[in-house]
Write a structure and sequence with these properties.
Blueprint lengths: L6 H55 L7 E3 L2 E3 L15 E3 L5 E5 L2 E2 L1 E6 L8 H6 L4 E9 L6 E3 L3 H10 L3 E8 L4 H15 L8 E5 L14 H17 L4 E6 H6 L10 E5 L13 E8 L8 E6 L2
Parallel strand pairs: 6-7, 7-9, 9-10, 10-11, 11-12, 12-13
Antiparallel strand pairs: 1-2, 3-4, 4-5, 6-14, 7-8, 13-14
């Protein structure tokens, strides 16, 4: 039908209509491709988020490995609430006399000795001149067979000699207590021997097993020994002195409950150039073969970190 358009006008209109139709047809695949891509990206993001949540849940479900440490062939779990060894291993060294030195942040640990009648007569002025700052003196001991209390034969002269030489002085008592009551009796014995004399270093409870012989303390359990140490220390503290507990690594790990004694000075015996005891301590006896002017033969050497 002819609507008044010329043949050329008609053809041009038809051509424009075809072009518009083709443009719409061509655009549809492009729109579909973009939509598919968006959907794919969203699906990938959802899958990744789901995977992260699953992995996080798996990590939360895996129990943490317990903290342990080795003592000889024994694997131990740290005592909860027990302060740990605070000392930097790199701060320890050995001087020209073969003595261990600890120095950190400008603070140098004091070098000391602990002695008894086994060292016999001591020239305390020579000891002081050889760089010794403090001395722990054995005041006495309890017999391991019948349980009698005895004063160290050289205590009085060692006490006077060390004080006259200007050393800081503390004392220790070699205990064989089997009950807290006996430990309190030992503390009273110490206080009577001191007679109110002031000391700048602690009064120590030194309970030790007796190897190779029959002793009244054989087989005493760690709970009882801990109670004995606490009873001794409390009586000493009540009298105005600073109490301490002496122990070796075996006692510290397997015998004493050190959590019951943290308010007192802890005196560790571990013979090495660097102490690796896991828990905190204040005094360290690091050898029994020390050499000091004024003392014949070997002597125990100690460091005080306070």
């Amino acid at each position: 039908m002819n609507d008044g358009l010329s043949e050329m006008d008609f053809r041009e209109r038809e051509e424009i209509r075809k072009n518009r139709h083709m443009t719409r047809v061509q655009r549809q695949p492009i729109r579909l491709t973009i939509l598919s891509l968006v959907i794919s990206v969203l699906a990938l993001m959802i899958a990744a988020a789901t995977l992260l949540l699953v992995l996080r849940d798996d990590e939360e479900e895996v129990p943490e490995e317990p903290i342990t440490f080795q003592f000889g062939d024994i694997l131990l779990t740290p005592l909860e609430g027990m302060p740990l060894n605070p000392y930097d291993p790199e701060a320890f060294s050995v001087d020209g006399k073969g003595r261990v030195v600890y120095e950190q942040n400008g603070h140098r640990a004091k070098t000391g000795i602990d002695v008894s009648t086994h060292q016999k007569d001591i020239d305390w002025q020579a000891v002081a001149a050889d760089g010794i700052s403090f001395a722990m003196l054995r005041l006495g001991h309890r017999g391991y067979s019948e349980g009698g209390l005895f004063l160290d034969q050289t205590f009085a002269q060692n006490l006077q000699g060390a004080l006259d030489a200007g050393l800081d002085v503390g004392v220790y008592f070699f205990s064989q207590a089997i009950t807290p009551e006996e430990a309190e009796e030992e503390a009273e014995f110490v206080l009577d021997a001191l007679g109110g004399r002031k000391l700048s270093f602690p009064v120590a409870f030194d309970w030790e097993s007796i190897p190779g012989d029959t002793a009244r303390t054989d087989g005493l359990d760690g709970e009882t020994v801990t109670r004995c140490a606490a009873a001794f220390c409390k009586r000493i503290e009540d009298a105005g002195y600073k109490p301490a507990v002496y122990f070796n690594q075996n006692q510290g790990y397997l015998h004493y409950d050190l959590r019951e004694l943290t308010e007192y000075t802890l005196w560790l015996a571990e013979y090495d150039a660097v102490p690796d005891f896991y828990y905190h301590f204040d005094l360290w006896q690091y050898t029994h073969k020390g050499q000091v002017d004024g003392i014949q033969g070997d002597v125990d050497l100690d460091l005080s970190f306070g």
